[in-house]
Amino acid sequence: MDHPVSIWPVLALVLIHFFGMRLRFLSGLPRSIWLSGAGGVSVAYVFLHLFPELNEGQEHIEDAVQALSFLRHHVYLMALLGLAVFYGLERSVVSSRKENQKDSSDEQASPGVFWVHIGSFALYNALIGYILFQREEGPVQEMLLFAIAMALHFIVNDFGLQDHHQHMYRRMGRWVLVTALLAGWLTGFLVEMPQSVIVLLMAFVGGGVVLNVLKEELPEERESRYWAFLVGATVYSVLLLAI
C-alpha cells in the first residue's frame, strides 16, 4: 500500500499512551466526566457498529468452520471470550493488590501479575493495530470511526492501568503497549489473514472493550458519572446511525 492512511490514527494512539496520563484534569474523584463520556463512546461503537459488522461477517465463519457446526452461528463466543479473559485478568490484579497491601502496604500488584496483565493488553493493542490497518481496505470514515472510539478507549485504559500498576506502568508498561500497537499495525504489511480470522479477532476486541469500560465505571468508589457515560454513548450513537 503506497499511502497507508492508517499511519496517522496509529500515531495518535501512540501519543495517547505517551501523554494521556499527563491530562491531570482527568484524574481524581469523583470520576472525570470526560473519562465516563469516553467510555460511553467506546461501548456505543461496539454495540452499534462493530457487533453488526460481525453479524455481516458471519458467512465467513460459516465457510471456515463447516466441521464445527455448533460454532457457525456463534461468532459472539469470541466476544464472550474477550470479556471473560479481561474479567479474569482484572480479578487477578485486584486480588494481588489486596494481598500486597496486607503484607507490605504496597498497593501495586505483584511483578508477575503486572507482566501477565500488561502482556494481555499488549496482545489486545496488537490486535487493534492490525484491525486498524485492515480498515485501509474500506471507506476512510469507517477507519476514522474505529480510530476515534479506540483513542478514547485507550485513554480510559491508561488511567485504569496506571491506577493498578502506578510507576511500573509509567516506566515500562506503556512502552510495551506502544510497541505492541505498532507491531500489530506493521504486521498488516506482512500478513494477510483470512476474513474469517479478522472477524473473530474483532469479536474478541469487542468483548474486551465492553469489559474494560464497564470495570472502570461500575465500582462504587470511582463515583462515576452515569449521565456523562450516557451522553457519550448517545452522541456517538447518533453519529454512527447518521452516517
Please provide a written account of the structure.
By secondary structure, the protein is an all-alpha fold. It has one domain. The chain is built from nine helices and no strands. It is globular and about 55 Å long. The relative contact order is 0.22.
Determine the strand fraction and express it as a percent band: under 5%
Ends: how far apart? 26 Å
Total helices: the number is 9
Shape annotation: globular
Class inferred from helices and paired strands: mainly alpha
Give helix and strand order, one letter per element, not per position. Answer: HHHHHHHHH
Q: What's the β-strand tally?
A: 0
Average per-residue pLDDT, rounded, comes to: 85
Helicity range of the residues?
A: over 70%
- How many strands, which pairing sense, and closed or not: the largest β-sheet? none
- What are the segments in which pLDDT stays under 50 over at least 5 consecutive residues? none
What is the domain tally?
A: 1
Rg to the nearest angstrom?
A: 18 Å
Please summarize what this structure is.
The chain is mainly α and 243 residues long.
Q: SSE layout and pairings?
A:
Blueprint (H helix, E strand, L loop, with lengths): L6 H13 L13 H24 L1 H7 L11 H29 L6 H24 L5 H26 L1 H24 L4 H23 L8 H17 L1
Helix pairs in contact: 1-6, 1-7, 2-6, 2-8, 2-9, 3-8, 4-5, 4-8, 5-7, 5-8, 6-7, 6-8
